[in-house]
Amino acid sequence: MASNKTPIYCLNWPMWWPRLIRYPPLTNKIRMRTWLVRLLQTSLFAITLQMALTTAGHAQPKPRRTYPGRFYTSVEKLAQFPGGREAMLRFLADNIEYPNVLDRIQYKPGPVTVRFIVAPDGALYDITVDSKPVTNPEAEKGMDTYRISIIRAIEKMPRWQPAQLDGGPVAMLYTLPLQVDN
User: Fold this and answer.
1) Which of 52, 127, 135, 161 has its C-alpha lying 20 to 30 A from 167's C-alpha?
2) Three-state DSSP class for 159?
3) Averaged over 120-144, what is the pLDDT?
4) Same domain, 172 and 94
5) When comparing pLDDT for 62 and 113, which is higher?
């Protein structure tokens, strides 16, 4: 689940109940069946909606630093970690802690996508981590710890070399796929 400092966003609305229609004494079997079917349909809809809302995604804190300006997704020269891709992968391997919970329950997190904005000065903003949905509560705790570890590792990174467009530095959205092989 989420830590104490993680805000959880949820939808809250009053419970909706179907309007009860006052029938004369239900002697007609067809009327009784349609009334029960309507009641069951609304109950099933409420249950499936609740399941969809609880399993649709995980609680992820809003990015700590949001970039105030515009950014590009397509540039002439991509932003680069100092030392190149190999140095970045080494840095991430040294700084990301893989939770013991996921090892213990033998859960494979699959590919994780990290997105962040590299500003013209090389600072990193709007760090988000996306992964596949998790249904196991114990695995969800481990995945939350894993996501937080990835965000902390990205925040520790030194300033990047910014992206270039028309000869000048620009902000760029960088997408980094990560796969853990254990």
Assistant:
1) 127
2) coil
3) 88
4) yes
5) 113
Residues written for the chain: 182
Would the CA dihedral through 118, 120, 121, 126 be positive or negative?
negative
Q: Which domain holds residue 149?
A: 84-178
pLDDT in tens, 37-50: 444 444 444 443 34
Clarify whether residues 48 and 90 are in a common domain.
no
In a domain, 73, yes or no: no
Place of tokens 């962040």: 116
CB of 168 closer than 8 Å to CB of 146: no
* Interacting residues of 64 by C-beta distance below 8 A, sequence separation 6+: 127, 155
Domain count of the fold of the chain: 2
Q: Which residues are within 8 A (CB) of 153 and not within 5 positions of it... i.e. 6 or more apart? A: 91, 92, 95, 96
Q: Please tell me the distance from the alpha carbon of residue 81 to that of residue 94, in angstroms, as a whole number.
A: 15
